[in-house]
Amino acid sequence: MAKACALGIVSALASATLGVEHAYADGPFNFGPFSSSSSSPSPHPPPEAAPSSDTPKEEESSSSKVRNDNPRTTSAGFDPEPLLKGAAALREISTSPNAKKAFELMMKREETKMIQAATKKAEMDAMRAQFETERQKVLSEEKQKLSQQQAHNKAQMARYEDDLKRKRMQAENEWHKARNQELVKMQEESALRLHAARQATEQQIQAQRLQTEREKAKILRENIQSEQEAKARANALHKQLTEDLSKRELIDRAKLEQEKWVAAINTTFEHIGGGVKALLTDQNKLIVVVGGVTALAAGVYTTREGARVIWGYVDRVLGQPSLIRESSRGKYPWSGIFSRGISSLSQKAEGVKGNGFGDVVLHPSLHKRIEQLAGATANTKSHQAPFRNMLFYGPPGTGKTMAARELARKSGLDYALMTGGDVAPLGSQAVTKIHQLFDWSKKSRRGLLLFIDEADAFLCERNKTYMSEAQRSALNALLFRTGDQSKDIVLALATNRPGDLDSAVADRIDEVLEFPLPGEDERFKLLKLYLDKYIAKAGERKSSWIKSLFQKQPQKIEIKGLSDDVIREAAVKTDGFSGREIAKLMAGVQASCYGSTECVLDASLFREVVDYKVAEHQQRRKLAEGGSL
């Protein structure tokens, strides 16, 4: 027992002496159950707790000696403080009644610590083995990577050596190629030098030959020139002698003629001088001569001015107004009597034959309506009833002017055409011209159809801000002259925009006729009509036999293979064409025929011109729509 206690004390002292070199898993000891009423320190305090428990002692001894914080590494020697602490703990344990249990407990703890140390050693061995395994694995991987890197480096070295060989061979090939090119170039330069030397030699030979030829030609020219100069000197001398003789003869003749004219002039002036002297000496003769000359001048001036005034009055009273563009009446009442008689006879003959409308092709319903108006107008004139005013409206080129002309011809009236655009430029004279127009129109014995084309140009609404005062006055003058129903004048207005007419003008209209674009049947008839006019009868102009002797007869156009089916096809293609456009189309066909070598119209040429005109019409419509937008 005592031996065991001594071992425990020795071990405690050893552990206290070794201090911080041992680490325990369960921390500092606390023997609370085995201590007395006064708390005793643990037998083995940790190295960290020792300074805190003995702090007062250290402070007391700090004044007497210098403290060594690291006694094992310094030269201060042995530190007795842990041994003192161990002795104090041993005394406490020996005086305690539970000393045996304390020693047993300490032994168990020591065993536990040894087991733990063995366990930790085993763990450390396992970790060391695992580390060795991992180190071997890493070494093997490093060796594998090293071998791969070496293989890669060898491959790169092989590729590099291969590239070097290839570049070396390429450089050698390029050097040989450049060398060959230099050799070829040197050979070419040598050949060129030889060729240049040969050409230079030939040029020298040619130059010498040319120089020789030039010298020969120069000598020849000098000889010829010397011969020509000799001949020229001889000819000049001969000519000079001849001219001297001719000059002498001309001078002699001129002197003779001069003497004759001088004598004649002297004789004439002597007679004139004698007459003037006689007039100046005789006062009565002088007065008679001066009075005659004055009377002659006054008569000439008076006759000229009087004739001008009288003709202006006749023209103003009997002449045609300046606003009229076209009329069936002559400019003066006596002009065109014979031609009007012939036209009236022809109209009667045509009236007996049928009810044709000439070149006007209209819709059947519109054609019937115009015929009814023509008959009603003729009967109105015969019964002395007032005429009815008309309004024609529709797109341009639909036959409004031609229908008005044919309406006047059918009804037996004269007609006069004017345009509304001629009124605005007249300014303040427009009112006077309008009154002259209506006064002139009333003088027609047969009655007159006054057709105003583009009527909206000066008969537009008076509320328009751009309408001038002169235009308003002209409109008021026309409204004044058409306020009552007339028995002498039929007023026919034509416009493309009927909505722009003044309300008072619209109130004076009795008949309104719309002229639409021709349909397919109308276009077919128009094509046939203008084909006959411009193609079939193109060379049948009526002229006198005297003119036919001196004028060249126009070439006739031959028509081949142009059937009604082809014309019907053109009528279908020309949808939207007006009558004027169809007339221009056929004029274009005529020009194409005259432009050909054989002057023949066949189906292919006709279709070609129609297609071109249709495309042109569509392009114009696009341009018009773009401009309106």
Defining key terms:
mainly alpha, 629 residues, 17 helices, two-stranded parallel sheet, 8 strands, 6-stranded mixed sheet
Topology:
Blueprint: H1 2-18, H2 50-53, H3 55-61, H4 81-95, H5 99-281, H6 283-318, E1 326-327, H7 337-353, H8 364-382, E2 390-393, H9 400-411, E3 414-419, H10 430-441, E4 448-453, H11 469-481, E5 489-495, H12 503-507, E6 511-514, H13 520-536, H14 545-550, E7 558-559, H15 564-573, H16 579-595, E8 600-601, H17 603-628
Helix pairs in contact: 1-4, 5-6, 8-9, 10-11, 13-15, 13-16, 16-17
Structure report:
The chain is mainly α and 629 residues long. Helices cover 66% and strands 5% of the residues. The protein has helices at residues 2-18, 50-53, 55-61, 81-95, 99-281, 283-318, 337-353, 364-382, 400-411, 430-441, 469-481, 503-507, 520-536, 545-550, 564-573, 579-595, 603-628; strands at residues 326-327, 390-393, 414-419, 448-453, 489-495, 511-514, 558-559, 600-601. Helix 11 (469-481) links the parallel strand 4 (448-453) and strand 5.
Q: Count of helices?
A: 17
Given the helix and strand composition, which structural class is it?
Answer: mainly alpha
Helix content: 55-70%
Strand content: 5-15%
pLDDT averaged over residues: 78
Name the shape in a single word: extended
Report the radius of gyration as a whole number of Å.
71 Å
Note the run of SSEs as H and E: HHHHHHEHHEHEHEHEHEHHEHHEH
Can you count the beta strands? 8
- Uncertain ranges: 16-66, 71-75, 347-355
Largest sheet: 6 strands, mixed
Measured distance between first and last alpha carbons: 132 Å
Q: Largest sheet, order of strands side by side?
A: 1-3-4-5-2-6
